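Running this now, will post back.
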Amino acid sequence: MTPQEYVEEVLALVERIPPGRVMSYGAIADALSELSGRTSARLVGTIMARHGGGVPWHRVVSSSGRLPPGHEERARALLRADGCPLRGDGVDMKAAAWYPRLDPQP
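Update: finished.
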């Protein structure tokens, strides 16, 4: 898989995250690891920072539920509008985490 194909796969997966649910950078990397051979949460973060404006970027958070750095206020508003379970400083990951291998594809 080329780097550009990986970017496209990351963005396609982010587009599948249902409203009210989130994925962590690491969960995205893990979900695509068999297909891509890549396992870097940091690379997913870089892809989201550079190319994520056209997808529901606010549904991608850290594994602890921390909102995208520098975009916390906007992400919180979008997640609230999605009906995502929030906690004091981010997302309630136990309630909101989504995994494509477990959930049926739309």
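The two ends are 24 Å apart (CA to CA). More later if anyone needs it.
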